[in-house]
Amino acid sequence: MEQLKTRQQVADEIGVSRKTLYRWLKKWNVKLSSGLLCPQTQKLIQEKIFGQVSQNVP
Fold first, then answer.
1. Which of 9, 12, 13, 54 could form an SS bridge with 5, CB 3.0 to 4.6 Å?
2. How many domains does the chain have?
3. Residue partners of 30: CB distance under 8 A and separation at least 6
4. Rounded to whole angstroms, what are the CA distances from 2 to 14, 15, 37, 54?
């Protein structure tokens, strides 16, 4: 069952600090509502981050 997560939990899963996560989201103009992150938002974040990482790999 999918669950709500904090921004810190999402950052930990991705392997970055919460501050880095915020910087990346700001760079990509991803606006988050306050409170816990729903599974759909978590998926969006992961797609943005892993999509950017894979584009930068030679």
1. 9
2. 1
3. 44, 45, 48
4. 17, 20, 11, 25
Per-residue pLDDT of the chain (58 residues; tens, 9 = 90+): 479 999 999 999 999 999 999 999 898 888 888 999 999 999 989 888 888 655 554 5
User: Would residue 35 count as lying in a domain?
Assistant: yes
d(CA 54, CA 58): 9
The C-alpha angle 19, 23, 29, rounded to 5 degrees, equals: 140
Q: Is residue 1 part of a domain?
A: no
Domain that holds residue 29: 7-56
Task: Assess if residue 14 is contained within a domain.
Answer: yes
- Assessment of whether the complete model's pTM goes beyond 0.85: no
